Amino acid sequence: MAADDNKDLVLLDFWVSPFGQRCRIALAEKGIPYEYSEQELLGTKSDLLLRSNPVHKKIPVLLHAGRPVCESLVILNYLDEAFPSAARSLLPSDPYARARARFWAAYSDKVYELGTKLWKLRGEEERAQARDELVQVLRNLDGELGDKEFFGGGEFAFVDVAVVTFMPWLPSYERYGGFTVEETAPRLAAWARRCGERESVAKSLHSPEKVDEFITMLKKFYGIE
């Protein structure tokens, strides 16, 4: 099978997952057709998911002709390498610029990690620490963005795909943490609005209200209420 072959391309995913949404946005941006397979994460996981990702047992997983590729940023890298003739590349051609993009994309995972602590932790001291760390992460992302239209410059690309999927979660994090993104990272807030106008983003993300409902459900599921 040639690498640049999208036959039997299946994405194992979960509707509200920001990590799965990264893959959906990337596939849309690159113009690659695929089959979507919604997975159960809070109940019994499918045999397909367990076989495809036996180490972490989680989504997203991209099946390419039956061969699994796991972890969202690994999938994004794979899409650029396996489909060189797709509509566009997400990573820059310069090796140093690619390295920076990969660094900031991986760093952005801290937004979700620390935001989860805000609604999951019970202790006020621990939540305050998570809040302060999250605010610093947002400020660091704001600084990296600077006055550019997108993280890579004038084109929506790898880091933008990685970061934008956390934006619908931020209103909930603001409420649990007692801060505002507009004050903490104003350039990032404006960037998020620009990204939201892209078709690939608008079709892949859910509203902050839907995300907040999901977080409320998770709190009940874990007995946090």
TrEMBL record:
<keyword id="KW-0808">Transferase</keyword>
<dbReference type="InterPro" id="IPR010987">
    <property type="entry name" value="Glutathione-S-Trfase_C-like"/>
</dbReference>
<dbReference type="GO" id="GO:0004364">
    <property type="term" value="F:glutathione transferase activity"/>
</dbReference>
<dbReference type="GO" id="GO:0006749">
    <property type="term" value="P:glutathione metabolic process"/>
</dbReference>
<comment type="similarity">
    <text>Belongs to the GST superfamily.</text>
</comment>
<keyword id="KW-0963">Cytoplasm</keyword>
<dbReference type="InterPro" id="IPR036282">
    <property type="entry name" value="Glutathione-S-Trfase_C_sf"/>
</dbReference>
<dbReference type="InterPro" id="IPR036249">
    <property type="entry name" value="Thioredoxin-like_sf"/>
</dbReference>
<dbReference type="InterPro" id="IPR004045">
    <property type="entry name" value="Glutathione_S-Trfase_N"/>
</dbReference>
<dbReference type="GO" id="GO:0005829">
    <property type="term" value="C:cytosol"/>
</dbReference>
<comment type="function">
    <text>Is involved in the conjugation of reduced glutathione to a wide number of exogenous and endogenous hydrophobic electrophiles.</text>
</comment>
<dbReference type="InterPro" id="IPR045074">
    <property type="entry name" value="GST_C_Tau"/>
</dbReference>
<protein>
    <recommendedName>
        <fullName>Glutathione S-transferase</fullName>
        <ecNumber>2.5.1.18</ecNumber>
    </recommendedName>
</protein>
<dbReference type="Pfam" id="PF13417">
    <property type="entry name" value="GST_N_3"/>
</dbReference>
<dbReference type="InterPro" id="IPR045073">
    <property type="entry name" value="Omega/Tau-like"/>
</dbReference>
<feature type="domain" description="GST N-terminal">
    <location>
        <begin position="7"/>
        <end position="87"/>
    </location>
</feature>
<dbReference type="InterPro" id="IPR040079">
    <property type="entry name" value="Glutathione_S-Trfase"/>
</dbReference>
<dbReference type="GO" id="GO:0005737">
    <property type="term" value="C:cytoplasm"/>
</dbReference>
<feature type="domain" description="GST C-terminal">
    <location>
        <begin position="94"/>
        <end position="214"/>
    </location>
</feature>
<dbReference type="Pfam" id="PF13410">
    <property type="entry name" value="GST_C_2"/>
</dbReference>
